[in-house]
Design brief:
The complex is a heterodimer of chains A (704) and B (324). Chain A is an alpha+beta fold and 704 residues long. Chain A contains 19 helices and 26 strands. Chain A has a four-stranded antiparallel beta sheet with strand order 3-26-25-24, with no helix packed on it. Chain A is elongated and about 110 Å long. The chains are: A alpha+beta (704), B mainly alpha (324).
């Protein structure tokens, strides 16, 4: 390697470019901006106000914060479902006056007062919910109107009862505890808020109704179409919001014990600012209790600190207005552009130098010929994308298709076919085990087993999570091909952990080595990753010695051998280092050698591009995906090689008319059956020199 | 069904207003006098002018909650400047420029930053009020300076026995009507309100039109503010925090201008204003408590929104996600 290549190699090996994109895919990344704002606010006011961090100052702030953040939580729950509740401020005031009137004037016991006040808030919420949820009014205007009505009701109650409230004296320890008491050093209101926040978090993230709420906010129409009772869910969020607002009112009443005319005025704007600042999206679908808490702390500190700094009330509303505008602007732009940013930074190519490609001219082992021209076609136009084909003891052909079925072509003439099993996903590599079960790697789903009586069973869809991987690599995204060891262990390849199935060409562009080989052990029903960081591992084939398997790395253009037993257990050897094309499936041949499919041939342009990661990164950022440089998958061939890596035989179809795009081949009773991921046919080629009785079943399991 | 099916909301509201008029005329002595009717019209003309401002925005599928705050602060600032000795014209120009700036920022935030109109203007209203109180003046109420008292004619004068605010209301209505019907920008405004995406695709400069609509509403708001200040010889900036802006929305929605945009015209505003005027006048004569009046108005607004939703149902298939 030249010096510049070495530098490029280490530059892209050491600097983890891909982590930024992976961070952006995480849901919790949304909380970063609000958290940074919070830290900035604390730092600013902590520096400006002398005893900002003193115990007394914080204790005072905490008790107010408890009430305020209950309102923000109330608003958050409504916002997550796609609505908005501006009446929280008025409901808060209503809760305050109702609690005081019932306690001071009517003299009810504290328990009954709390229950009645919460009921009052729930009733206001129910009105909102009926109007917005069931009558489908616009949430903003409707709750504005209920804000005015409830405010007017509060004013009327104030006129009637404020004197009586001020005159009465309440002697109740519980009531006193609500307002002044502490639990483990924390004010009572904070404890209540913490309980509510944890409950809200658990319900939203882990319960059926919480998922319904999120789904409704995320896409109302889709939620309706999958059968979620959208109207009821929305109504319910308003009831919860009204109840929480009333609860905050009770806490406020117990703390101050007085009913003022300005209680709760403008609180809805502050709560809305807090909710949006925390990262809860207007319009729903994105929001959490944590976001509400972060936002409420930030706004509480800002408002309170301004008062303590002695700034006039005008500055307060100016600041709230500007912060609300800024927060909404960030929210809107972030939501709109997040996926654009993600698509720009997610693809992060590395330096990958392939060995020079051997030629295909006359003297080369890969010399061109037309031996595939005579292929017979099975199921032409009737099957869509048989990535792999396999034959059973009775000579029936099994092949997966694009619509998630495993199709069986019936022997002897293969003119009739049936859906053997509908498994869903994208059926890829297949193998029969000792008992005649058909094991199948299904892209997007995992490893599945179809028993001879056509029962479909999931074997595994997850493996062990890597400690330091940012994307969750425990789920199987693209299980590709498998083979079964003599002891029954199933080794299968997962092509990439960073991309979805349909994005497989992008994985080539990145050339990072995102694939792995995973082992499923039926004895313990456990799954674990065996080999990592492979460049799109694809075909897997057990060697004839029963101690190792061969695997092909498609973008690495090589075939390697991994020993899982015997003296060399755990080691990897390269068998063929410099293939002229991209290898796909490997299968056994009858004479102790192996068949290998080359799905496409390398091109000098892409080989060069692989050595220029910066070029590929710019390409991925600046031009549309259909203009990108992609690996060629149009012309390929079938290769036979032995376990020392010697190329013994090559089968070509130069025009590609009869059988383009080969991804697999399977020898069976003197014929070679050929499949292709994007093909509409299965090819069948007579092999004149091979054993006419050899079958894969017999080679693996000793049966005939 | 067949009768109601043919009636538009505008006709229903007009009928209601007439019915209320007849009812009040019979029940309330002193309602049906020329003096009271002129007084009624005069008292609602400010609401009507603001209604026209709001209508222009609502037809363009927006809403302007900062209307009252911009009006109060700009007029109060003008009065303050006049009070410090600045020539009236210069002070008025500053007030107008302030209003236009607020409208332009609103429009920019809504059209270019794509913040939902309701939030942008809500936050702008709060910010504008805070800006005025913090930077411009310290008083809640600013009085008309003595040397500019001739301006009071705008609010208190009369021509041929008809109060000036009624003429102003009529003038604003006429201009807005001509704008909507006769100018290209007016038609663009309606197209943008009816279907933003289609308007953009067919080449309408949608974003500038949105900015224009908020600037116009702010400007009309300034006119209404001057009339308000001239009527009572002062400007109370606390009005920015009151529920006055919802009365304005009430007028617009009640008159039959759907909040989903693209529909309705100036006639709807006039009808809505008449009904509210009759209602407020009657309630005042009956001496109903202010808070109760608020409840009654709100319930009527709620009913109007319910009727609006039933008559112009939101299309679930095409409604934008997050259109709240």
């Amino acid at each position: 390697m030249s010096l510049s290549d070495t530098v490029a190699y280490w530059r892209y090996r050491v600097v983890p470019d891909h982590l930024l994109g992976e961070l952006l895919t995480k849901r919790w990344i949304d909380n970063v901006i609000p958290a940074v704002i919070l830290i900035a606010v604390v730092a600013t006011f902590g520096a400006l106000i002398p005893d900002f961090f003193s115990a007394g100052s914080i204790g005072n702030l905490l008790r107010q914060w408890g009430e305020f953040s209950l309102l923000v939580l109330a608003l958050m729950i409504v916002m997550v479902a796609g609505g908005i509740d501006l009446s929280v401020g008025s409901t808060f005031a209503l809760g305050n006056i109702v609690a005081l009137a019932l306690l001071n004037v009517a003299g009810w016991p504290v328990g009954a007062v709390v229950a009645a006040t919460l009921g009052c808030g729930a009733a206001v919420g129910l009105i909102n919910g009926l109007l917005v949820g069931y009558l489908r009014l616009r949430a903003f205007l409707t709750t504005l109107v209920t804000l005015i009505i409830v405010r007017a009701v509060v004013d009327m109650l104030l006129l009637k009862y404020s004197v009586a409230i001020a005159a009465a004296f309440v002697d109740s320890d519980i009531w006193f505890f609500f307002g002044e008491g502490s639990v483990a050093g924390l004010p009572f209101s904070v404890v209540v808020t913490a309980v509510v926040a944890i409950a809200a978090h658990l319900i939203l993230s882990r319960s059926r109704i919480g998922w319904h709420v999120l789904a409704t906010g995320g896409s109302r129409r889709s939620a309706h179409n999958v059968g979620i009772p959208v109207r009821r869910v929305i109504c319910l969020t308003y009831v919860v919001s009204g109840t929480l607002a009333a609860l905050a009112g009770v806490l406020f009443a117990s703390r101050l014990g007085g009913a003022g005319a300005d209680t709760g005025i403008g609180l809805e704007v502050a709560a809305l600012t807090a909710a949006v600042l925390g990262g809860n999206s207007l319009g729903g679908g994105r929001g959490s209790a944590a976001k509400a808490i972060i936002g409420s702390i930030t706004v509480m500190i800002m408002v309170n600190s301004l008062v303590r700094l002695g700034v006039t009330s005008g500055a307060n509303s100016l600041l709230l207005g500007l912060v609300l505008l800024g927060a909404v602007a960030i929210d809107v732009r972030w939501l709109k552009n997040r996926h654009k940013v993600l698509s720009k930074v997610y693809v992060s190519p590395v330096f990958a130098a392939l060995p020079p490609a051997p030629g295909t001219d006359a003297g080369s082992p890969y010399a061109l010929n037309d031996r595939l021209r005579g292929v017979e076609l099975i199921g032409l136009g009737e099957i869509d994308g048989p990535e792999d084909v396999i034959l059973d003891d009775d000579d029936h052909i099994y092949a997966g298709n694009r619509t998630g079925d495993i199709i069986r072509f019936l022997a002897p003439d293969y003119r009739r076919w049936e859906v053997y099993a509908h498994v869903g996903g994208r059926p890829l590599g297949m193998a029969f085990d000792r008992d005649g079960n058909l094991l199948c790697c299904i892209g997007g789903m995992g490893l599945y087993r179809i028993t001879p009586d056509r029962r479909i069973e999931k074997l595994t869809d997850e493996t062990n999570r890597s400690w330091f991987s940012i994307v969750d690599d425990s789920r199987l995204r693209l299980a590709d091909d498998l083979d079964i060891a003599p002891d029954g262990r199933v080794f299968f390849s997962e092509a990439t952990i960073r991309y979805e199935m349909h994005e497989w060409p992008v994985d080539c562009l990145e050339a990072r080595g995102n694939g792995r080989i995973v082992c499923y052990d039926p004895a313990t029903a456990s799954t674990r990753t065996v080999l990592k960081n492979l460049m799109f591992p694809n075909g897997i084939c057990m060697t004839h010695d029963g101690q190792s398997f061969l695997f092909a790395e498609t973008w690495g253009c090589r075939v390697s051998r991994y020993y899982f037993a015997g003296p060399k257990s755990g080691s990897v050897e390269t068998v063929i280092a410099d293939l002229p094309g991209y290898p796909d499936n490997i299968n056994r041949a009858s004479d102790g050698t192996y068949w290998l499919a080359l799905v496409g041939m390398r091109t000098p342009s892409l080989d060069l591009a692989l050595k220029m990661p910066g070029f590929r990164k710019r390409m991925a950022r600046r031009i549309a995906p259909d203009e990108w440089l992609y690996p060629n998958i149009n012309s390929g061939c079938v290769v036979r090689f032995d376990d020392r890596g010697t190329i013994l035989d090559v089968l070509w179809d130069q025009g590609g008319e009869n059988h383009p795009m080969i991804t697999s081949m399977r020898e069976h009773r003197g014929h070679l059956y050929i499949g292709g991921l994007l093909n509409n046919r299965i090819g069948r080629l007579k092999l004149p020199d091979s054993d006419p009785d050899w079958t894969g079943q017999r080679a693996y399991w000793g049966r005939s | 069904m067949s009768i109601f099916g043919r009636l538009t909301q505008e006709q229903i509201v007009l009928g209601l207003a007439v019915l209320l008029c007849i009812g009040f005329s019979i029940a309330l002595p002193g309602f049906l006098t020329a003096n009271n009717l002129l007084n009624l019209l005069r008292s609602v003309s400010i609401l009507g002018i603001l209604g026209v401002a709001m209508a222009l925005v609502v037809i363009g599928r927006g809403i302007d909650l900062s209307l009252i705050a911009a009006m109060a602060i700009s007029v109060a600032w003008t009065l303050q400047l006049i009070g410090t000795g600045m020539p009236v014209a210069q002070a008025a120009v500053i007030g107008v420029v302030f209003c236009l700036a607020v409208g332009m920022i609103n429009g920019f935030l809504i059209a270019y930053v794509e913040i939902p109109a309701i939030f942008a203007t809500l936050a702008m209203g709060t910010a504008v009020y805070g800006f005025g109180r913090y930077f411009l003046f310290n008083l809640d109420v600013l009085y008309f300076p003595d040397h500019a008292r001739y301006l009071l004619w705008l609010g208190q004068g009369a021509v041929l026995g008809v109060p000036v605010p009624i003429y102003l209301f009529a003038g604003v209505c006429l201009l807005a009507f001509l704008f909507l019907r006769q100018t290209r920008a007016g038609r663009y405004l309606r197209a943008v309100g009816d279907n933003l995406a289609a308007a953009r695709i067919s080449g309408v400069p949608a974003r500038p039109i949105i900015v224009l609509q908020y600037m116009m509403s702010s400007l009309i708001g300034f006119v209404a503010g001057i009339v308000t200040a001239a009527s009572v010889a002062s400007m109370n900036t606390r009005i920015a925090n009151s529920t006055f802006v919802y009365d304005v929305i009430l007028v617009v929605v009640l008159g039959g201008i759907g909040l989903s945009g693209g529909r309705g015209g100036i006639r709807n505003v006039i009808v809505g204003t008449l009904l509210i005027g009759v209602l407020l006048n009657g309630m005042t004569i009956m001496d109903i408590q202010y808070t109760l009046q608020n409840v009654i108005k709100s319930v009527i607004l709620l009913t109007a929104i319910v009727i609006d939703t039933i008559l112009n149902p939101r299309d679930e298939q095409t409604a934008q996600q997050g259109d709240i």
